[in-house]
Amino acid sequence: MEKLTIKEIAKLAGVSPTAVSFVLNNKKGVSEKTRKKVREVIEKTNFVPSLNSRRLFFKKSYNISLVIQQSSSPFSDLFYYEITNGILEKSKEFGYNIVFTDISMKGNSMEIPNIIKYKDTDGIIFYQDTERAILREVDKLNIPYVIVDAHSTSSDFTSINADSELLSYTATKFLIERGHVDIALISSSYIPEYYIQIFTGYKNALEEVRVSISPYWIQNNAFNELSAYNCMENILKNALKPSAVFCAGDIFAIGAIRCAKDKGYRVPEDISFIGVDDIILSRYIEPALTTIRIDKALMGRLAMDLLVKKINGESVESIILESDNIVVRNSVKNMDCS
């Protein structure tokens, strides 16, 4: 028996092909009676529309482009790896393929991949803050997009983010409540808006208890484990040592802890550490890392939800995730109990 088409399903159900499309895409616009009739025919005939048929009929590619940068690659960064898992999980539910690609900027020119240039994608998910020139080009192509982990406060685009200032404040406050006032900061100025938010939360928590900030303890050149190791080395070069370090990323904390141990310090007996993200490795290092948990898989699922709504012409708003969930492990000493 030849494979049925959407038009033939419509004929068997006594409805229009458009009604069948609404049922297949779970859209409003058909009565429950019609929806039931179409589903019965689909179930009876074991109908599964071919990808090419769906593309032609619904005028969709069923591709979603995931645009990544070197600094946000899910193949080398565990934070984005977990977000990607959430995206892949949700993409199956919506019937979309995820295509990994990038957009390169060379001076004032950019290289748009063919899947985007020729609109063989229904939508785009960007990781991290994205150049406005790229977003303007995508706007010209009229392709819906969302940005995951953007740190800009602009309302010009749809994004899914953590509250960086809140998580920074929460982590620093946690250390203060456990008796620490000599608190260093390891962060990254690679994305200026992110650094400003992190520093603001850190500063506000210390100002509440009237603690001055030592400029020697502020290190903002971290972007991976090795650079965080170097940042911690710079902190330890000073005569006055902090009792705790807030690291604006678990991978920074992992590098900083390794440095402290290499220099002969005990963790947390001599120096405590707290991170952000709750990546998989954070629970397996020694000692297990206290951190602010960001639900990265949820970020990925929400990105797909918002993007599919935009593709379907629905109105959406940016989302800020809960960002003050502390996972207490063994890397922070309670000074009041010493």
What does this structure look like?
The protein has 338 residues and is α/β, with parallel strands linked by helices. It contains 12 helices and 14 strands. It has helices at 6-13, 17-24, 32-45, 51-58, 78-94, 114-117, 132-141, 164-177, 192-208, 225-236, 250-262, 296-311, and strands spanning 63-67, 97-101, 104-106, 109-111, 123-127, 145-148, 159-162, 183-186, 218-219, 244-247, 272-277, 290-293, 319-321, 325-327. The termini are far apart.
What is this structure's SSE topology?
Elements: H1 6-13, H2 17-24, H3 32-45, H4 51-58, E1 63-67, H5 78-94, E2 97-101, E3 104-106, E4 109-111, H6 114-117, E5 123-127, H7 132-141, E6 145-148, E7 159-162, H8 164-177, E8 183-186, H9 192-208, E9 218-219, H10 225-236, E10 244-247, H11 250-262, E11 272-277, E12 290-293, H12 296-311, E13 319-321, E14 325-327
Helix content: 40-55%
The total tally of domains equals 3
CATH homologous superfamily designation of the largest domain: Response regulator
Taking all residues together, what is the mean pLDDT? 89
What spatial form do the alpha-carbon principal axes imply?
elongated
| Strand tally | 14
CATH architecture of the largest domain: 3-Layer(aba) Sandwich
Topology pattern, helix = H, strand = E: HHHHEHEEEHEHEEHEHEHEHEEHEE
